[in-house]
Amino acid sequence: MSEFIFKVVAIGDGGVGKTSIAMRYAYDKFDPKYKATIGVSYAVKKLFHGDTKITLSILDTGGQEMFDYIRPFYYKGSSGALIVYDITRKKSFNNLDRWFDNLYSQCREIPVILVGNKTDLIDERVISTEEGSNYAMQKGVIFYETSAKTGDKVVDVMNELAKVILQKKEKVKVLAEKPRKTPRDKTRIPGFMRRLFK
Hints:
The structure is a single chain. By secondary structure, the chain is of the alpha/beta class. It has one domain (2-197): P-loop containing nucleotide triphosphate hydrolases (Rossmann fold, 3-Layer(aba) Sandwich), CATH 3.40.50. The protein is built from seven helices and six strands, in the order E-H-E-E-H-E-H-H-E-H-E-H-H.
């Protein structure tokens, strides 16, 4: 059995529900009184994908501007990322370009899932599913909507991210192990042609 540990970062504006998503996924709990994350919080979840055991180490970074200087240190070494916005707050959606730029400045090639959170607040929605989906298509990333409060789609999001990270790792491994052509052994070349290969 193979075993991997993947570091995942959850980023986005403060108050969009990054901590709630991580806690719901890792510990299946939700606390409406979560305080704003100061710097970074941490959650761990173990899962299986086929015969592969995966440990997701989820780092939820504080979204406030005061943490801008320290946040990039947590991005380094990440295997994947969630970029989260609040479907009831237009500003959190408008700031997505900044979060993508912020992440890609440190780790360009990692898988990313865009998450529109708080679908339980139906009457307060201001960002449509179509808007979120279209933005994700422009960025070339996977898109989900979730409710950390009810747990809707949270497990799906995290399991999908783990699967995509694993697929990318396996693809890189295959390319690395692909045999290269070796120079022809000159000793097997007939004598009258050997001069051509000198």
